[in-house]
Amino acid sequence: MLHNEVRLTGFISKDRTIRSNESNGEVTGLTFNIAINTRIPDPEKDGEWKDSADFFPIFVSARNRSFEYLKKHLLKGAQVQVAAYLRRASWESKHRKGDAGEALMDFRTDICATDISVIRYAKNDTAENESGGSVPGNFDPNTPPLESDEYSGHEQFME
Question: Can you spell out the DSSP letters for the chain?
Fold first, then answer.
């Protein structure tokens, strides 16, 4: 059986943005960008490597049980691991037209997070943890963001 699931590990490249419904102002989720480093052999220099980074926008639904926790801790510089599913959105273009003048379709692929693990917290007003990474000063490493019986699978996060 095929599953629509991706896993990404990287650093948050800028602070998260809270998203809300334009018509009623209700918070719908948040987005943040994750930077993924890639190292490949340099085809022009034998034995050398080329480094590059790709940036991917990630969406977290306000219905995610960890939303309030993530809203506080997804800050620029944090290292995270994201489990997500891909969702494709399409709409009639307002700007692009076909040869006969008909509107063309625009597409976007969204990465919708179902589970996010903070591997290393961003440095701000923080205290050092035992592994050398930094954690928010009010963070208790003995208290998980989810109770184990609350998280039985991804279905509670699907939109």
Answer: -----EEEEEEE-S--EEEE-TTT--EEEEEEEEEEEEEEE-SSSTT-EEEEEEEEEEEEETTSTTHHHHHHH--TT-EEEEEEEEEEEEEEEEEEE-TTSPEEEEEEEEEEEEEEEEEEBPPSSEEE-TTS-EEETT--TTS-SS-TTT-S-SGGG--
Per-residue pLDDT tens over the stretch 34-52: 999 888 888 888 889 999 8
* Predicted confidence (pLDDT) per residue in 122-150, tens digit: 876 444 433 344 444 434 444 444 333 33
Region of 153 on the Ramachandran plot (φ > 0 left; ψ -120 to 50 alpha; else beta): left
